Amino acid sequence: MSDRARILDSIRRAPAARLAHPGSYESPAVSPSWAAFAAGLRAAGGESHGPIARAVLSETIASVCRSRGDGPVRIDPALVSELGPGEWVPLDLEAAPEALADIHVLVSRGCVGVAENGAVAVPIVEPALARALFLCQHLVLVLEVERLEADLHGGFARFWSTEPAGRTVWISGPSKTADIEQTLVLGAHGPRTLAVIGVGDRDA
Asked: Does domain 29-199 have CATH number 3.40.50.10420?
């Protein structure tokens, strides 16, 4: 009998354990506040800024981008009218994937934030934006503080109520892996840093 056959036979002979249904999901005792979201984001390795007034959004983004060092800064074209001219260039949505590999900082918008783990939903309308989210070295997300939910259940419900036909990427902290010799590496599968800028005056 082969090793594979022995393993499968052992599985078949193992007694089946019956487990009780866990019951209805109970949301964690986390408030959908900016302070709670910032704590969740920090635990995941990201950083938060704000909440800030919309009038200083461009200035704040420029400051965060400068703190990441020199390199090309691209912004989601949907933010161009709000941010105006600055130290950035709109992302070329027609660019070939290899042309996005030199993006140092990408600035985009999140549509929902989750306090329990600091995750942000980024709606994906253009394939180039999806690629840039993973190819950039540093990611900066703009998030309206009124769009915070306590947990992912509420986050998904909010997302589907506003983006019913859309796709999304959920991002919480920088890209991390420790598969090899349990050595933590940042940026292996995506951005090395994540900053979320909160806009609005919701209770912090």
From this structure: yes
The residues, ordered by sequence, that sit 6+ positions from 88 with a Cβ below 8 Å of its Cβ are: 61, 65, 73, 74, 75, 105, 107
The CA distances from residue 144 to 89, 110, 173, 188, 200, in Å, are 22, 8, 18, 29, 6
* Element spanning 136, H or E: none
Q: Is 69 left (phi over 0), alpha (psi -120 to 50) or beta?
A: left
> Are the beta carbons of 114 and 171 closer than 8 angstroms?
no
Task: In whole angstroms, give the CA distance from residue 186 to residue 165.
Answer: 32
**pLDDT tens digits for range 63-92:** 999 999 999 999 999 999 999 898 899 999
Strand partners, 67: none
Question: How does pLDDT run across 134-161, given as a tens digit for each residue?
Answer: 999 999 999 999 999 999 999 999 998 8
The H-or-E segment that residue 204 falls in is: none
State pTM to two decimals. Answer: 0.84
Alpha-carbon gap, residue 84 to 123, rounded angstroms: 21
DSSP 8-state secondary structure symbol assigned to residue 54: G
User: What b/e sequence results for 99-133 when a residue is b if at least 16 CB atoms lie within 10 Å of its CB, and e otherwise?
Assistant: ebeebebbbbbbbbbbbbbbbbbbbbeeebbebbb
